[in-house]
Specification:
56 residues; mainly beta; single chain; Glutaredoxin
Length: 56
Amino acid sequence: MSMIDNSKYQILAVHLREKPSLVAKAQTQGVNLVPALVVDGKVLHINVSAPIFALA
């Protein structure tokens, strides 16, 4: 993740199919499609390809 300044942002990459316990947290943060990036509480849906409920 060298595109993001690690001194400014804490990076946590999560594969939600491997960590289904984090799906609800992602949804409360506004993630409704994956892949997505959440920065400062704002969601950026990247290359929209799958609804998050398909992971549950």
